[in-house]
Amino acid sequence: MQLDKLVNYYKVMGDTTRIKLLVLLSTEEPLSGQELAERLGVKPPTISHHIAKLKEISAVYERREKNTVFYYLNQKALRQHSEGLFIVLERSGKGERTMEEQKEREQILQNFLAKDGKLKTIPAQRKKKLIIFEHILKDLEMGKKYSEKEINEHIKQFHEDYATIRREFIINHYMYREAGIYELNPTEMWAK
């Protein structure tokens, strides 16, 4: 999960009316905008505004039945966002590498990289694989948006199987992908 999305989630959730809407949707059957407005004592346009914000972060979803739109709580999305904060906090508290870890890292790079810097083979062991991926990422800039083609070209400098490595970048939270655009996640979010 990208840090910006996590921050936006908490911004959206920092509103009393939105929390009340979520509580109503968690304890009741699906409700229409009109029913939500009546129960909260606000006007329907106010509900529409808050529902739109909650839909932005996937906290609610809607289903239409004839002429009425009913809103549902998306518990899975809410759980993912909540757990996302703990993941970021846990990873940021790990601190710097020890000298021993640094030596081990250098040894792994030496074993898997040829003299020209190309990757001999993708390691099977997860720990080694992550060290290799971080090495491949080191020349990419934080905050810069890359096209898929740019990422492919960068990876090809190290290994011909750019599709597998690119996929691993997403799986291990090194990068975030949206609409074919790739961006580095903060290092606190990277797999450890």
From TrEMBL:
Statement: the UniProt record of this protein carries the keyword Iron-sulfur: no
Residue stretches making up the HTH arsR-type domain: 1-93
This protein's record includes keyword Transcription: yes
A Pfam family: DUF2087
Gene Ontology MF term list: DNA binding; DNA-binding transcription factor activity
InterPro entries membership: ArsR-like_HTH, DUF2087, HTH_ArsR_DNA-bd_dom, HTH_MetalResp_TranReg, WH-like_DNA-bd_sf, WH_DNA-bd_sf
Keywords, comma-separated and alphabetical: DNA-binding, Transcription, Transcription regulation
CDD domains (UniProt xref): HTH_ARSR (cd00090)
PANTHER family: TRANSCRIPTIONAL REGULATOR, ARSR FAMILY, TRANSCRIPTIONAL REPRESSOR SDPR
Protein name as it appears in the record: ArsR family transcriptional regulator
Species for this entry: Sutcliffiella horikoshii
